[in-house]
Structures are given as C-alpha cells and as structure tokens.
Design a protein that fits this description.
Elements lengths: L7 E3 L9 H5 L5 E4 L2 E4 L9 H5 L5 E3 L12 E6 L13 H11 L3 E2 L2 H18 L6 E2 L4 H10 L13 H17 L6 E7 L3 H7 L11 E4 H15 L11 H5 L5 H4 L6 E5 L1 H12 L8 E5 L15 H11 L12 H7 L17 H17 L13 H10 L8 H26 L1
Parallel strand pairs: 5-6, 5-8, 7-11, 8-9, 10-11
Antiparallel strand pairs: 1-4, 2-3
Length: 432
C-alpha cells in the first residue's frame, strides 16, 4: 500500500477533545483518544472539513511559507482561477497578474490557461471513450483520493488527464528554462492554492510520477500582501492573461463541465453530495451521463478552506469577471498532449479493510456485527468514535475496547458495584 502524505495537522494544545470533527469527517478518519483528536492519515482525504468545523482552530492546513520564494533564482506564480473571485470590483485579471510580479515573482502562468487546454483534451477523450461514460473529473484531488480508497469500481471511469495545476506547472517550468537558460533546480514553480488537498497532490501525486510544483502557498496568505500591489498596478498593467471564459469558470462548480460544450453532464459540490453521487453511480443510476464534475468544497474551488471570500460571493464575482472575455485564449498543440495524460495506473487502496484475507475479513465483519448488537446504536460519539459501528471496527482492529462505550462501561461498573456489595454483605455475615 502506498504511503500517503496528509496536509491536515492537529495542534494538540488547542484541541479540547470535543466531537465536532469526528462527526463531520466524511471518511471517519478522526477519533478522540485521551482527550485529544487523532487523525488516521490513511483514511484522510484532505477535504478540510475538520479545519472548517473545529471551533477551537485545532486543525490547520500544512503549506509552504512565503519565504520559499527566496530559495530560487527565478520564481513563477501559478494563480488558481478561484483567486480572482477573492477581490471586490476586479474588472481585469491582468491587475492581479501584474501585482504578483510586483510582489516578487519573476513571472506568472495562469492555471486557468492550462484549464482551457484540459477542457479541450477532455472533450476529445469523452467523445472517443464512450465505454468509459460517465467519465469522472480528476481535477479535485480529494475526489480522486476518495474514489481510490472507497469506490474501487469507479476507478476505470476517472479521466486520465493531469489536473490543470499540474499541466500548468509542467508548461511553466519548460517555458522558464527556455526563457532564462537556468537549470530546473534554480526555478521555483509556486502554486497559489485555495485548499490543502493541493499540497497532498504535490507530495503524494496520483496518476503521475511527480509534480513539477515546487511549493504551495495559501491563498489566504497571498491575498493581504497582494492588495497594496494591486492598487499600484492599476496605472501600469501588463497584458499577461492567457485565459478566457472557459478557464476562469473552472474556479467554481460547473465550470469544468461547461467547458465540455455538452449538456449531458452532472456537476456536484460539497463532500456529502459528492459521496451521494458516487454511491448512485456505483449503483448504475447515472449511466446515461457523459461526464461528472465533482468538487469536495461547497461552491467548487472558491469554497476551499484557504480562501478568504464567501464562496457564493466569489462565484458571482467570477461570473461578472468573465462576462466580456473571449471564450478561450489557450489552445492545444502536440507538445502539450505529451505532458497532459497520466503515466501511472491508479489502483485501489483498501485502507478500510478489517482483515488481511477474505476469510479474516468475513470473521472480523461477524465480530463487528456482534459488537454492534451490544451497543446502544445512539452514535453519540462519547466513546471518541463517530458511530457505534466505527467503535466496533476499532475494537476489531485492536485500537479500542468495549468499555470505551459509556453505556457498556456503566453496566460494567454496576456489575462490579453489585459484586462488591455482595462481598461486603458476606464479610459482615462471616464476622458475626
């Protein structure tokens, strides 16, 4: 089984041991043990829901500091299209791109430009692979990871094309080496990300050997530092943009599917809705569709936990911004095609298994069902697990015990108290 990096970190000093996170986690990756939350990284899909829900701010995303720019002689910023939805009254993308250069980046390469290339590749793939319908988008790394560990039957439906940010990184690094003559190691390709899942996609890529991204910066950290440079850039804007409506639309739900120029698609956002769609797809309820776009965050990438703007307000801003743009500004060539497709097979990762063999799994499943009959089926979370079934599975795996359930513990204490009472009564009689 592959070793996976997870970009969600627990700050133990802030954790109060509440059960908000264990109830919210879509893959039941969190437990509360000894008064502190514990994240099982094999189960984690980096959706960021625990970061979003924690009232004590005990969960945080891991990303690179801005100082990483100093490690390279030449740096290229890769702004996600969702970045443009963070600003009020923005009417020209070039203002943001010019400000990024003034902020210290030597060059910029729009992820939205690469998104238009991915849209064109996707159109061709969907048309030529009817046997894979519905084709599932692979732009959201959280969704790809979810399918890999929980929906193995759907892996064959995944679009085997690099996410726009990975394609942008590959093309940006090639362009920078040609422009500067510098070796690759002296060039820093830095992505401005709306979510922590992109960090994991760089550290533990799926479908590709490695990512050309050298660092991932948080959009919420770039935003306040970018504002003063944007004010200075208004009068001296460089014409740097390479994307149109299709590319900018990728920042919100429906943008990727809309780029296919087909109406036979489904677009869903929010991790609970994504799981519901995947369950229906696994049950062959959505076979009539050509394409399915899934985003783990509400609203799409504009809803990532590393953004600053309300996702629905950001969607409106993107809609206004793209109004007068051309349909697309970036187009395919043969060199891009070589960089675009996956070069690694995506395999099922059975992280939720409860046995090493089929026989052992069946025996353990029987034990789980037996334990569940003992529990009150309240799913109260007091044991530190999100559900009674999750506690039963933890017991079978050897990381919990029956007495962790307060109802079982109460019965045990009552029996022990009765036994002690009877023993005291017997001693009193014997002493007489």
């Amino acid at each position: 089984m592959s070793e996976f990096f997870t970009s969600v970190h627990l700050k133990e000093e802030l954790c109060m041991g509440c059960i908000n996170c264990i109830k919210r986690c879509p893959t039941q990756a969190i437990r509360v043990r000894n008064g502190k939350a514990v994240i099982t990284k094999e189960f984690c899909i980096d959706c960021g829901e625990c970061i979003r829900i924690c009232p004590h701010h005990a969960k945080e995303a891991i990303y690179d500091p801005l100082e990483i720019m100093k490690q390279y002689e030449y740096t290229v910023a890769l702004p996600a299209p969702s970045l443009y939805g963070q600003f009020n009254h923005l009417d020209d993308i070039n203002i943001v791109l010019t400000a990024l250069k003034k902020m210290g980046f030597n060059d910029v390469y729009e992820v939205s430009g690469a998104a238009e290339l991915v849209s064109e590749i996707s159109r061709n793939y969907v048309q030529n692979h009817r046997d894979k319908w519905p084709v599932i988008s692979t732009a959201c790394p959280t969704v790809v990871r979810l399918i890999q560990v929980r929906f193995p039957n759907l892996i064959e439906h995944l679009l085997p094309v690099s996410a726009p940010v990975d394609l942008a990184a590959s093309l940006a690094s090639l362009a920078a080496m040609q422009k500067t003559g510098l070796p690759r190691e002296k060039i820093g390709i830095l992505f401005i990300s709306p979510c922590p899942a992109k960090v994991t996609a760089v550290k533990s890529p799926i479908g590709i050997d490695h990512s050309e991204i050298d660092g991932v910066l948080a959009m919420k950290e770039i935003y306040p530092k970018l504002l003063p440079f944007m004010k200075d850039s208004i009068d001296q804007v460089e014409n740097l943009s390479t994307s149109g409506r299709i590319g900018i639309s990728w920042g919100a739900t429906g943008g990727e599917a809309g780029g296919l120029l087909s109406e036979n698609y489904l677009a869903a956002d929010g991790i609970e809705n994504v799981i519901r769609v995947l369950e229906d797809l696994e049950d062959s309820k959505l076979d009539q569709l050509e394409f399915i776009e899934l985003n783990a965050c509400a609203g799409g990438c504009v809803g990532g936990v590393l953004t600053v703007e309300n996702p629905y307000a950001a969607k409106v801003k993107l809609k206004r911004l793209r109004k007068y743009l051309p349909v697309a500004c970036s187009h395919l060539d043969n060199d891009v095609l070589e960089e675009a497709f996956w070069n690694h097979e995506v395999r099922y990762e059975p992280v939720f298994k409860i046995g090493n063999t089929m026989r052992e799994s069946i025996e353990n499943l029987t034990r789980v069902e037996s334990l569940c009959r003992k529990f009150p089926k309240l799913d109260c979370g007091s044991c530190g697990a999100p559900t009674c079934k999750a506690l039963a599975e933890d017991i079978v795996r050897g990381v919990a015990k029956e007495e962790d359930c307060i109802y079982i513990l109460r019965e045990y204490i009552h029996k022990l108290s009765d036994a002690l009472s009877k023993l005291d009564t017997k001693r009193d009689k014997d002493s007489r």
